[in-house]
Specification:
Helices cover 59% and strands 15% of the residues. It has helices at residues 2-15, 19-43, 90-93, 122-139, 142-206, 222-236; strands at 53-56, 59-66, 69-76, 85-87, 101-106, 112-118. The termini are far apart.
């Protein structure tokens, strides 16, 4: 390290260059030398290395490249981008190729089936996808497929957002309609209650019932009094 610093100092004194410029140039050269292998590796990669997504059998497939081979190939949900579950249990019991079916199921989206492949198990499906990937690379159509895949994924996202927005607007519409109905019916209910209270009050006022009411005594009639007097006289005689 001391030898390098002394060399930089000699260069600065020899060519009359400021010391900080010489030091900065030396640091830049070291960074370039260290980063050159990584940059060269990136620049020397084939152009198809950017081709890492493909929609096939109604599901999204993603993978990586390592030493010229496709690795990490698996299926994903085009709607929520979650990893899919692969069901190929019937392929073990069935002998006929037409009866061997592999299903792709998304547990995040409610466990619904997204797609299926007839003819074999998951290894058979992966081999079909690899063959299709290399076919696009060989024919030079991978850029078109990659752009179409991005557009399809964007369309899936827009559809999901539209569904969520419609559901939100529907619930908001129901709440608003309920509030309007309540606003319309509440005054009518209050009015009917007030009318019934007013009718009851008028009936009470027309037929009052006193608290301490004594029974009226019937006064004797004059005819009855005379008849009773005659009977008394006869009894006396």
């Amino acid at each position: 390290m001391e030898k390098i610093l002394s060399l930089l100092t000699r260069i600065s004194e020899l060519y009359a260059i400021p010391q900080w410029i010489v030091n900065s140039g030396a640091i830049a050269i070291c960074i370039i030398l260290l980063a050159f292998p990584f940059v060269a590796r990136v620049l020397m990669r084939p152009k198809y290395f950017k081709f890492r997504e493909l929609i096939l059998f109604k599901v999204l497939w993603r993978w990586k490249y390592k030493k010229g081979d496709v690795i990490g190939l698996w299926c994903y949900c085009p709607k929520c981008q979650s990893m899919l579950m692969v069901d190929d249990e019937n392929c073990r019991s069935e002998e006929t190729l037409q009866h061997k079916i592999t299903y792709f199921v998304c547990p995040t989206c409610g466990g619904h089936e997204l797609g299926r492949v007839i003819g074999g198990d998951r290894r058979y499906v992966l081999s079909l996808v690899r063959r299709d990937i290399w076919r696009h690379i060989r024919e030079g159509t991978y850029n078109e497929v990659a752009s179409a895949t991005k557009e399809a994924l964007a369309l899936y996202v827009e559809l999901e957002e539209a569904k969520e927005q419609d559901a939100t607007e529907g619930s908001a519409f129901v709440d608003e309609t309920t509030a309007l109905l309540l606003e319309e019916e509440l005054p009518l209910v209050e009015k009917s209650v007030e009318e019934s209270l007013h009718v009851n009050a008028s009936e009470v006022n027309e037929t009052p019932i006193p608290a301490n009411e004594e029974p009226q005594k019937e006064e004797p009639n004059a005819t009855q009094v005379s008849i009773q007097a005659e009977e008394i006289k006869k009894d006396g005689i």
